[in-house]
Amino acid sequence: MPAKTKKKTRKQQNKIVKFISGLNRKMVFILAFALVGTLMFINTFASTSAAQPTRENTGPRYSLTNMTVDEFYSTRTCNRQRITGRVVINQNSMKKQTFNMTDCEISGLVIDFGNTSPLSLDEMPILNLDYVYSASPIYTNSAAKLTADHSYFDNGKTQINIKQTWGPFLEAPAPFEFKNSVFWGPYQTQPVHTEALQSASYGSGYKFTNVAFIQEGGPRENTGVTATINFSGINSVFDGCWFIFDGPRPAVYTVYIAGKNNTVKNSWFDGADGNYVYPDSNPGATYTNNRNFRTGEAILGNTSAPTTPPTSTPTPAPTTPTPSTPSPTTPPEPVPTSNGQLPKEYGFNNGIVGWEAQGNTLISHDRTVGNDSAGSLKITTDQQGPYQDSTKTARAGTNQYTTGITAKAGQKIKGTFTTKSSVNVNARCELRFYNNNSIISTSNGTLSKLTNDWTGRTCTATAPNGTTHVALRFYSENSNYGDVFYLDDVTVSLNTDSTPTPAPTPAPTPTTPSTPTTTNDISPPTQVSNIKAALKFNFWKSNYAINLSWDKSTDNSGVEEYVLSRNDVQIGTTKLTKFEDTAIQPNTTYTYNIQAKDKADNVSKSITKSSTTRCFLIWCWLE
Fold first, then answer.
1. Binning pLDDT at 50, 70 and 90, where does residue 314 land?
2. Under 8 Å between Cβ of 182 and 214
3. pLDDT for 504 beyond 80
4. Sign of torsion, CA 304 307 311 313?
5. CA-atom Rg of the chain in angstroms
């Protein structure tokens, strides 16, 4: 072959090699990009939809054979087996020993060496539990190097203590670590005191990661449930945990976590009444980046629970406190310039912002029924309400606790509303007073029969000592599931009916009076317009979010904030004309409602936007 031809051939071969090499580099890049995207996709939705531990993803994964307790003591290993008896670690010969349970079922576990002071680290037994189901609670009165993963602890009141006597706080190590596991507690009534988990040995260093504390629900009257968890320890971490009530909420508070340097972060809280933390958790934990389990609303972020008891210390059992009698001393007259949010008026023409269901009721906005104008609050007795009881009383009211109406001790307050129903039961108006997150007392108006016609109800009271907030409530007795009540023309104001008539003053020299002007703002803001929704991937957080934006509303007194609801549940407020919703799932339709609220609490008509998340492989979009 001529030299020139050979040279040309080599050039062509080199071009082909370079072309193939370039293709290879491109393919490697594409495959790497796809792999990274897939991992981010998996992380995004695995963390939001499949992360919660349940009975289905914990406990043994295989069929089991039986073994005796003595066989377990001998081998110290349970693997795909069912131990026919309760495992009790209490002999000195068992100290320092290692016990392994994998895909194992036990009827119970006790660790108790009878010590009244904590064990040292080198004395402790070592227990490794992986995919274990325990039919009864764990009881430890001695510390152990215990690690549990993907395990389910049934029937509640699990106690993981480091000594027999409770308290005081100790720096002694409590090397208990639970991951991807469930503590489930049954509902019980007084005098029994129960939670899904109890730990009051006050040790140091507990770790809970992606653990669900699930407490069965039930009537709050005579309840023995304080919270989902009653924990007293120090230097402990709850990361990505779930504090949930299974059924009607049986407690006023969601968690009781007390002790210095405790952290609760990235976790989900059930909190139908808005009381997430027991106020007397002293000292309180630090709460960071947590959310409401049912709404996805951001809560308890970068704040600490109260470190000192409130002015009015709540009763330890979370039953509704009995109304207290106001102090017999003459209260000071209210100062008109210090009325906070009083007076408040609710006409329900455009929505029900500022109200919440209480008891076994659901509330909604009815645009067709009203007293003076179209629009009222519709109250339906329903077993899906936040709290069922045997009497099935219907209750609804203005926001409670620290989200309620600002009030001060000594203020004379009056509540009024009109109501109607086809149900022939008694109903009344109530005023409930709070010291931050604690109920002080409730003042009841007179019970009278409801009719199909609008009739008024009134309640009055003097705010007792310690009052920071007040709420007005509608209450009816002996209603049945499905009963409907309507509420309109609500006012909460200072009661001037009993104000003494001032002493007469000399008549002034007649002059031409100027015409007084009033500035009572009853005009709602303009309706929000041009709402848009876009799907955004947060690279650093590895999750998707729906970004909402809209054109600003206008108002003569200025727009104070925008109120956002998702699927008829309020998820937040913002002063901006944009909002990011991170609590979303793939292939799910979300309907958003946005209302503008002005400084006088007038609310605009709502605007609605529906969007559906769609996903294929690593790609997601909105429809």
1. very low
2. yes
3. no
4. positive
5. 31
Alpha-carbon gap, residue 215 to 154, rounded angstroms: 11
Domain boundaries, the chain: 65-304, 340-494, 529-622
DSSP of 372-438: SSS-EEEEEE-TTSS---TT--EEEEE--GGGSEE--TT-EEEEEEEEE-SS--EEEEEEEEEETTE
What are the backbone angles phi and psi of residue 600, rounded to the nearest 5°?
A: -95, 10
Q: Each residue of 316-374: pLDDT tens digit?
A: 333 333 333 333 333 333 332 223 478 888 888 777 878 887 767 788 888 778 776 66
How far does CA 496 lie from the centroid of its chain?
38
Write down the mean pLDDT value for the chain. Answer: 78
Angstrom distance (rounded) from CA 346 to CA 490: 5
Tell me the sheet residues that pair with 328: none
Read off the tokens for 463: 């705010």
Asked if residues 594 and 570 have their Cβ atoms less than 8 Å apart, the reply is: no
What's the rounded Cα separation, in Å, for the pair 217 and 214? 9
Q: What share of the chain is helix, strand, coil (3-state, %, to 5)?
A: 10, 40, 50
CATH class name, domain 529-622:
mainly beta
> What fold does the segment set 340-494 form as a domain?
Jelly Rolls (2.60.120)
Q: Is the dihedral of CA 291, 292, 298, 299 positive or negative?
A: negative
Residue 365: Cβ within 10 Å count: 17
Other Cβ atoms closer than 10 A to 449 = 11
pTM given for the model: 0.46
How far does CA 489 lie from the centroid of its chain?
A: 30
- The two three-digit tokens of residue 230, written as one number: 């009653």
